[in-house]
Amino acid sequence: MSDRLSKTIQRFQSKIDSGSFYEAHQTLRTITNRYVKAKQYPEARDLLYQGANILIQNKEYASASDLINYIIQIYEEEELKVTNKDAKLKLIELISNLPNSDPSLNDLAKASITWSQKSEGCKNFGDNDLHHLFGSKLLQAAGEDHIEYEQKVKLFAVAELHLVLGTFESIPIYVNFLVETAKANPNIDPGALLARPVLNYAYLKNIKFVQEAQTLFLKSIDIETESIGDIRYSKTKPLLNFVQLLVEVLQKDPQTNSQKYRKLYDHYKPELQKGEILAPVEYLGKLYFNLNIGNSNNQGGLMANLMSGLFK
Hints:
This protein is mostly helical. Helices cover 68% and strands 2% of the residues. The N and C termini lie far apart (52 Å).
């Protein structure tokens, strides 16, 4: 950092120490504006990064979030890509240090994901690491005891979407939350919960993630089952049986297994209706096997259609 930037940060720190948070924040923004107008982007980014860190340390999260958002704007103007490791890691570091329930997270998620979509390889959904970051934080917020039920539902819906688009490390975070939900709701067929990651990852044709999610879920669920081949069969949990059979069929050759999928669908259709997953299963039949069953054009609330009573 240059001497000029160091002196600016020292003055900023002095204002913070004296409790002049608003003045410190606005002054830093004004100085940053000058750097941006002069296209001195590294200096502007460095100043905002240091300032945001100081504000976070002093729990001035709203002001810190504003500076983080400004950093993303500079990334956009400078045309920095998410492949710039230093830029991405600094952004992840700052956002990681915000509270999990910070109200600015959704806006920061939209801004940072939109920025990342301008990079090759991220154009469809955005950067996986950023999705993992926001999904992890929002899911932790959803699990906090003081959060109201309706807010939990909203947080989970957004967190789930991010985690599905996240990394391999997102899977245990996602699945563990569903396992804990299943344990807290013993009257729910756990297959209804296992269906969430299985269907969501299957939508993306990510069979590796489907398999990992199922393996982790079945390892952690304590219910009475018997082994039939690779299937943990339950006499009282038909959806759990269905999801495991679904995973088996999805891994097979679509040219020879379309009828197996159709038979599986027909056999479990009443249970799929009860579990509110009929439409997603119909859609997968079209996606994988070109089967026109039911309203297969309906994606069934892709990745964010919450099942009723999930958190009760």
